[in-house]
Amino acid sequence: QVQLVESGGGSVQAGGSLKLSCEVSGMGVMNNCVGWFRQTPGKEREGVASFSSSGWKYYADSVRGRFTISRQRTNNSLYLQMDDLKPEDTAIYYCALARWCAYDLLPRESISSWGQGIQVTVSS
To answer: Looking at the predicted structure, is the pLDDT value of residue 121 above 90?
Structure first.
């Protein structure tokens, strides 16, 4: 059974940094397409960053240059380093495992497993 558990969220002032972690069990994080999504009340869950099957990294335009996605084989985990955070980055963030891959940000319909979500709040 696949399980994804996020950690590292919290509250920070604008311009600050946070690093989200996602520990994956039941599936290899290096062998699959994985990514991060976020959602705010009243809006659809949107892709933030993801890996393709060949290891390419894709980012939403709103976070490119500020966020960095990475993954580590030794502890089978996915990460999202978030720098220069802005109030509009406030959301619940989810790590995700896809059942199929894309040459772009992973679409929501590709996701087979979600983490429980973790709150990130950025104050101005």
So the answer is: yes
